[in-house]
Amino acid sequence: KKGYIPYVDWKNFKTQYYDGRNNAWEFFFKQPSLLNELDVYDSRNVYLSGWTFKNINSKGLFESTIFFNEELKKQSSNLLRKHLVVNDEVMELVEKESRELNVPNCIGVYIRGTDYTKLKPSGEYVQPSVEQIREQIEIFVQKYDAPIFLVTEDGEIYDELKSIFGKRIRTVSFDTFVRNYAGESFLSKSNVLDKDKKQRGQKYLVKMLLLSECKYLISSITQGSKFSYLLNDGKYQDEYIFDLGLY
Fold first, then answer.
1. Most buried residue, 23, 59, 129, 153, by most Cβ within 10 Å?
2. Banded pLDDT at 51 (limits 50, 70, 90)
3. Dihedral angle computed from the Cα positions of residues 159, 28, 219 and 247, in that order, rounded to the nearest 10 degrees
4. Looking at the whole model, is its pTM more than 0.85?
């Protein structure tokens, strides 16, 4: 609205995916403009986002209210889909996995465990139990007789659901799970994740993108599920979102 040209800098401003050399944003997405780093910092005026801009999100877009407020969901979805462009490397992975798993006909199931359920981070949404997830999956399976595309990082959750639903459960070809999680720190700060930060982030992003392509959705509320929900843009034929309050 102000006529600024955007550039996302995940090199000089660090995230968990920074590898010490590259702008980690570009591991996953294309820049929203044709500028490069040298262009940006050689410019006369450079405005840094974040706390510099007061009330930058005064409407409350992209918050958990998108699951329950149709207008906020639509505005957030339009903004996201218009300006966020996934890079070609990630899209090739998405297309390959989508074909092999027949994701567009699946019941997408997204559930977090590990640090969410062990650390119970204050202000984050309570995650459903495996029993609650199982009950909801059974309702959807009975109604739609569809395969289940499961997204979780928690090996214990995967093992239990796999033992119940068997071959109906589908996961990406490269999926790995965290088991026997001690719960001493958040996953992003632990040593249990893939050491290759680019691969780690791309694999996570691919699963979130695939989740947005599913025909149906059963999900808890997290940052990841908000992303998938908005990319889907209201096309899920049926959905169930666990709203269990906050830790």
1. 153
2. low
3. 90
4. yes
